[in-house]
Amino acid sequence: MKTLSLLLVVALSITSSLAVDRNNFKTCEQSGFCKRLRPFKSEKSQYALNLDTVMVHGNVLGAEVVTQDNQGEKKHVLWRYTLKLSALVDGTFRVELDESEPLYPRYRTQLALDGEPKEDSLKLISNENGKLTVANSQGHKVIITADPLKFEFYNKNGDLAVVLNDNNQLIVEPLRVKREKIGDDDEAAAVEEDESAWSENFKSHHDSKPRGNEAVSLDVAFPEANQVYGIPQHTDNFYLKTTTSGEPYRLYNLDVFEYELDSRMAIYGAVPVLYSHSKRHSAGVFWHNSAETWVDVVNYADETVVSSLVNLVTGGRKTRVDARFMSESGVIDVFVLLGDKPADVFRQYTRLTGAAPLPPKFSLAYHQSRWNYADENEVRSVDEGFDANDIPADVIWLDIEYTDRKKYFTWDPEKFAHPTEMVANLTAKGRKLVVIIDPHIKREAGYFLHEDATEQGLYVKNKDGNDYEGWCWPGSSSYLDFFNPKVMDYYIKRYQFDNFPGTSKDVHIWNDMNEPSVFNGPEITMPKDCRHYKPPQDGHEGISSYWEHRHVHNEYGLFHISGTHQGMLDRDGGRYRPFVLTRSTFAGTQRYAAVWTGDNSAEWGFLEASVRMCVSLAASGISHCGSDVGGFFKYPEEELMTRWYQAGAYQPFFRAHSHIETKRREPWLYPAATMGRIRDAIRRRYALMDFWYTLFYEHSIDGLPVMRPLFQEFPQEEETFTIDDTYLLGDRLLVRPVLSEGATSVKVYFPGKDSKTLWYDTDSYQAYPGNGYTTIDVNIAKTPVYQRGGTVIPRKERVRRASTLMADDPYTIVVALDEQNKASGTLYIDDGETFDYKNNKYIYGRITYTPDNMTYKFIDKNAHYPTRSWVERIVIAGIKNPPKSAKLVQEGKVTPLQMTLHRGNDVLVVRKPAAAMAKEWEIHFTY
């Protein structure tokens, strides 16, 4: 009872409050290395390149860097470092700086990169006047100043795009041996070193810091940049603001209940990639480090005290953004992305960390969740509720209560006694089940996983080398050490169908609490001096024989989901595509899982924040993002719930979820009119399923975001640089969800003035020119969504109860004409669930419209899929000169077609062409 009582106190202290307790989380002043490094400003960097050591071979420049004591007439070398500058394909450079002979190896992030980056060539152009100039094969150039050390990166147009160490804030704190005793005269210094360098306290938590101070820092300048973006997750704007008057942005994966809006506080995700943009060019940096990181930003165009002073001195507005990364440990390892358009830098980043693989198609449909559906009868009732109310749904979710008393890979023997039958009832309707598996393991005698982990040494260790014990949902818990290959192998095998009875290929996984969340830990997470597996190396003992949690913290969840992903692949021999959802995020997460924005609240501000948070994550590689529709905490009234479903229907991951203590809120529990609007929003999503699926296929190829900021497609329009309530899906749909209470109109920005872009309302086909802001009237049923002129979008209007049942249903093809009366688009088709597409069992087609012809051609002629789908209708919007007749030509057969012209909105409808999508076809128009 003592154990249960303590757990209850801890849980209530976290969940009963509906506002984050800032006292549970550090400020920069309370984070030892941030407090130590942030004030550091030097007139001249201590770091200098030894020009006599420079060597260029293949794609790498290597050299020695030293720090010097500049006091007195003769300089004295203090520390030696090894510099490595690598040229990589696609206009990317990598800069690495590590101690030449560290006391023990420093940690290097392991899993973020999608394999070893591909090499470009590197040529030494000149070495004179204390400067080195090198260039890659594409004409990108780097000038390295030797003393003080500075790197200037020029894009292929000759523009200076990125500068490293321009503000002399490069720091690599060398590892040292702790001084046990020093002279009496230095007693004060000894006390200071003992207290600050070798230990640290936060509230009641003590961090032993056995390696001492080992922080790294680097400043990055973006000359001529208007804005910078990235470093999610945070809840403020997509474009990053100057931090000089407050806290830096913090990247440290944390379980923050009821997180704040408009905040730079750390929450669940930490993706250390930063992009800059101006009308002239785009660039970026990827800070390859998994330790706690703080990022300062100074945008000189901001109306701040700093910019005002600069403007006073320079006599005008200075266009430049400076940033500074500060991490608690690791090495300097930074990738410089030289663009020069937004799409270029986004693609360069995903080329390093990987694009998301093609997800199973059902994962793009609607998901219904709650903490918790209590038993099998309730699952059946919810499932039947969708059918009874004619609302499509693909997935039912189960939170932690499905388990046998919070023991993962088990089922509650009473409430979920027949999981196989329960799953079969869902799959018979084309639906799936998702269950939760968290990384904390209940410490209970007789629980097979705990017994195995204890006996085989699979848990993370505490600072004394014993199994670490913390508190989470099960009570006393320990945490699997996924960095150990032995642990990973064990964990992967837990997903075998024999090891997890009741599961099948139609049961998928939700990984939550994997920051990791520890209710009684410092900042609700694992102590930094816990120990993780490190591969054994000769001569490495004691401190050198393990990594501390401080080194790997932001990667912990990434290792967790990589194991889950592999376990699901292995369980059926790699035939079916897995779906995993994660809360903890880091660089590379997209290769394994989708993401949601965590424990939000039923408030308008959180609905608004969901848009900018997902746009930021998408630009940072993680396109499969959404929020808990309706909010996790509290209860959404009818208008908010309606608007959230309408917005969620146009975000990649579309799931409703709610807290255990909130009122039930399945769509049919609202009044009939509201339920009807929710049904309409969900059905709109299903009509666009093949469009979404095509976008994710194309992302898997080119790495570009599915959910895009406007400036990605319109990089010359300055107005778009700070718009984050409106976004694009691919380059085809513009979405401006209604995000405020009682709205009767919204301002929609229509980009594309210079290119004479047209935007067609997807409801009325009314055309709007790309001419900036326009006020659009909305009622409670209206979501402003617009198809870009010049595009073709496939739709399926016969919405069924699950997307899996719509595979062979007919298409409606919507053609939106541009100023030249042309349009084109793409369509991807496969079986939606297996990896057979990798064996050319798919269709990737292009639909092209000109006034004379409309054609459907296969982009990849070597691929084929025997779809039975066909074209039911073609809608051509913006037609000014309609044809008199049309005929379909497919496999040599010519078929006359019927057409109807709607003059009110210039729409021509080609009725029932019945063209089969398994074969190419074309339509000829005559006038």
UniProtKB/TrEMBL annotation:
Instruction: List the subcellular locations.
Output: Endoplasmic reticulum
- Segments of this protein annotated with the region Disordered: 186-211
UniProt signal peptide:
1-19
Residue stretches of biased makeup (Acidic residues): 186-197
Q: Which residues form the Glycoside hydrolase family 31 TIM barrel domain?
A: 357-695
Which domain of life does the protein's organism represent?
Answer: Eukaryota
> Which stretches does UniProt call biased (Basic and acidic residues)?
202-211
Show the GO MF annotations. Answer: alpha-glucosidase activity; carbohydrate binding
Q: Name one Pfam family in it.
A: Glyco_hydro_31_3rd
Q: In which pathway does it act?
A: Glycan metabolism; N-glycan metabolism
- Residues forming the Glycosyl hydrolase family 31 C-terminal domain are 703-793
**Every DUF5110 domain range:** 812-871
Which positions fall inside the Glycoside hydrolase family 31 N-terminal domain? 82-296
Record keyword Glycoprotein present = yes
Q: Which SUPFAM superfamilies match?
A: (Trans)glycosidases (SSF51445), Galactose mutarotase-like (SSF74650), Glycosyl hydrolase domain (SSF51011)
Q: Which family does it belong to?
A: Belongs to the glycosyl hydrolase 31 family.
The name under which this protein is listed is Glucosidase II subunit alpha
**What is the organism field in this record?**
Danaus chrysippus (African queen)
